[in-house]
């Protein structure tokens, strides 16, 4: 699972936090989103933050492992390298491992702020709006995705990838979110919760959804 990459403070990104909260909550919403009571909404926030807490614990463990591996690579480069180029390559790998460890630690630092902001009205309101659209327009969203899938069936995709796609398409078709924003946000979440293959796949599918939607608008 990739570490969170931020370009600005979390407090400036309520919709980004709302999207993440919606993604973590989608599978837990049993009732109609419009009928969720404050107590049930609090349950969603609690469950979502527990998921993130577990992720951060995993990240810290990975960070520790990567630092140790990086240190071992540096020692090996000094002892075992047969040439200067081989030593450079081993040191570079060690630096990459250390960089990954630092990124994991950065995600841990952000968790308290994420938990606090996930309880604000603005974040909850958009999270619920997004969940509601996904539930109400689910058939239309899934049909749109299925028409652009190549050699794949939506039902066969990993659940996290399906949820990310349905959320992004809901934003594109029904929430008037700019194409670039919807795609970029989905890709960033995929980097965090899916894998490299997953986020590239999601990016490609959403690009085709946008092309199809643009063509449909021009033909009107």
From TrEMBL:
It holds the Pfam family NusB. It comes from the Bacteria. GO terms for cellular component: cytosol. Keywords: RNA-binding, Transcription, Transcription antitermination, Transcription regulation. InterPro entries: NusB-like_sf, NusB_fam, NusB_RsmB_TIM44. Belongs to the NusB family. Involved in transcription antitermination. Required for transcription of ribosomal RNA (rRNA) genes. Binds specifically to the boxA antiterminator sequence of the ribosomal RNA (rrn) operons. This is Transcription antitermination protein NusB. It comes from Gomphosphaeria aponina SAG 52.96 = DSM 107014. The lineage of its organism: Bacteria, Bacillati, Cyanobacteriota, Cyanophyceae, Oscillatoriophycideae. The gene is nusB.
